[in-house]
Amino acid sequence: MKKQWFLIVALFLFVMPLTQAQETRPELYSVAFYNLENLFDTIHDEGKNDYDFLPEGSMKWTAEKYEAKLKNMAQVLSELSRDKTPQGPAVIGVAEIENLRVLQDLVKEPAIADERYGIVHYEGPDRRGIDCALLFNPRQFTVYSSRLVLSEPFQGDTVHLTRGFLVVNGNLAGDRVCFIVNHWPSRGAEAPVRIHAGNQVRALTDSLLRMDKDLKIIIMGDMNDDPMDESMAVALGAKKHIREVKKRGDLYNPFWEILEDKGVGTLLYRGKWNLFDQIVVSRSLFKSRQGELVYDHAEVFLRDYLIQQDGRYKGSPLRTHGGKEWLNGYSDHLPTILYLRRK
To answer: What was the pLDDT predicted at 3?
Structure first.
């Protein structure tokens, strides 16, 4: 499997422009991830099970509801990290989007239209039709190359086949940074299925590092597991503490401490916080030279308006639907943010 990943990354890793415009760079940058919770349009996509999200479907998904959803999502994206980085995130990984069309509609929303976000998206094989994507601010991040690496079924199980791994290679603040955007199988699948996903991303990461041992890698996504679960801590091998990140291929997961030591999560299930939405960094973001990017800190983006204030779901993230009742909320997940500074 590792040889396969090596061949895949060799095809695209070193594809890059010869020149890049130079401009004054800030000292602090941010990257974010957000599960947009069923961002569907109102049009049926052939071959996809999107019937619930049609005007005549079970969710009665009308144009008015779709437009409200876009507005709500854009509001959150417009506020991510602005209190610390006025320029906003350089990139935002997203999950649970139906197609390129919904992303094009989203980035045109007035709250974020001025950012002129670029889009990296590939149509994947998910039966519901949901994909991952990467939005990027072209003033901060230049895309060199990208690819959707399809997941291999676990023991032939195509029912719980994970969404593909979106790999985007580019330039951030003068450094080559590679993003891997994920959405692993839900808790409807047993743990070994997500462990298998973690093993695949580990193999992909190892292949990238064999091509360039100093490559800065950022792995983000909805893993449907917590940081201390086997898929993350063992299969992917993401460490809880920076002091444990010693070898070239070691990874650090700042959200392990955020959940386990601070009790902060991104989704609430039966009164317990989980933190499925994680951003993991490679050791190269701690061993940078002067002027290069290094890891600074991470956080869960939590604002009062993102939390249900009353009723049955009080205290949970304010989602779009409660059952089939339209709540006109945001998402059942909270966004996460990672900050990088120039050394």
So the answer is: 56
